Amino acid sequence: MTLALGCIADDYTGASDLANTLTKAGLRTVQTIGVPADDLALPEVDAVVVSLKSRSIPAGEAVARSREAAAWLNARGAGHLLFKVCSTFDSTDAGNIGPVTDALREDAGEAIALVTPAFPETARTVYLGHLFVGMVPLAESPLKDHPLNPMRDSNLVRVLARQSRAGVGLIDLATVAQGAEAVGARLDALAREGKGAAIADAVLDRDLAVLGAAALTRKVSTGASGLGLGLARALVAAGRVAPAAATADLGPAIGGPAACLAGSCSQATLGQIARAEAAMPVRRLDPARLLAGEDEAGAALAWALERIGDGPVLIASSAGPEDVAAVQARYGRDAAGHAIEAAMARIAEGLVAHGVRRLVVAGGETSGAVVDRLGLPAFRVGPEIAAGVPVLRTTDRDMWLALKSGNFGGPDFFADALRLMP
Ligand SMILES: Nc1ncnc2c1ncn2[C@@H]1O[C@H](COP(=O)(O)OP(=O)(O)OP(=O)(O)O)[C@@H](O)[C@H]1O
Ligand SMILES: O=C(O)[C@@H](O)C(=O)CO
């Protein structure tokens, strides 16, 4: 297999978002969980998205895992490496977007990497280096209250500079409007100034096509699905990939019981859980009881098992910013997050042991914990449920999954997802 594009995603929902975008753009794509074992049978594809759970781990570990993924992708001839980060640039001053970008760029022998989280389809745009989420700057969006990495600075040149070894420059929209050559020239100029990364503005899909073409002339870039779209279009335009049908036949219906798990505390997910109450039984996990050592996971699993014979159920730990802050103040941010993720993983394991083969998970870290516990090696990409969220089918067994990024999906996401998982 010779890959046109190798991708390393810093979380599992982000990986399925990117795999969805690449598939829609005509690249035959598979999403793997972690760096694949050498004996993992993969279909013939144009792109592999290696999913890591490296967004919120210490920078040194994120660098090491990303390098391992890069080595695997390079060994399969990847023409370009895309480091997929969140479209809301989720990270802290300790990393990991800067350290991983620096490491992949240096390993590839490149002086500078183009970086943009713009993804206009989901209303993430970058102008003069400032990231907008919908109509508001990042720091005024709900991301300011993210449980693990509150985003309180909208200026990504500053944000990335605080976590990078080399300096960070800007490729402004006026330059992007002049086309890929102008962007390339700006990258060269910034590299001569000693910058190691450049945040690129993008407001419309046509800007992404320009950035994709410019990025493809180098070996490494960093961005969200929007840059993935630009790279995919550039690969097709250059004749390096013959576009495939956007939807492949993923096999027969699976049926049986279905369940949804939500650990994301994003505003979108909170709304979707509220809407799901009308469509299915919903059980709220009590983080305080769980963190106090009570068997909340066991109780929630027993609750679910009593009901899944009658239709789908939803178990959610998700809570609003004030409740999250209270739990974190008492138990610590990471300890609370990990304990809740572990509870979700345990519930998922119990559900699957009792026959659930259709599973929807909301939240990147939560999805990572669940998928790891289930030991799923790779997914093929099915139809799109909502922008950035495809249906996935495991390659090694009959199971449907949807891994939803916290902020993605329409109000009825959970019901929408289950409808596409026959
Ligand atoms: N009630 C709660 N109180 C405190 N922390 C919580 C609570 N519920 C969930 N969490 C934790 O918050 C974190 C949510 O992160 P997760 O990545 O799953 O969602 P997200 O960030 O909204 O999604 P994405 O990364 O896809 O945007 C997890 O670590 C989860 O365990
Ligand atoms: O880019 C995004 O917003 C998503 O794919 C994601 O990574 C959320 O975790």
For the largest beta-sheet, the strand count, sense and barrel status come to:
15 strands, mixed
Q: Order of strands across the biggest sheet? A: 9-10-5-11-4-1-3-2-16-17-18-15-12-14-13
For the secondary structure, the number of strands is 18
What overall geometry do the principal axes of the alpha carbons give? globular
Poorly predicted tracts of residues: none
Strand content: 15-25%
Task: Classify the secondary structure makeup into a structural class.
Answer: alpha/beta
* Rg over CA atoms: 20 Å
Put simply, the count of helices is 15
Roughly how many Å apart are the termini?
Answer: 31 Å
Bound molecules: adenosine-5'-triphosphate, the ligand O=C(O)[C@@H](O)C(=O)CO
Integer average pLDDT: 94
In helices, the fraction of residues equals: 25-40%
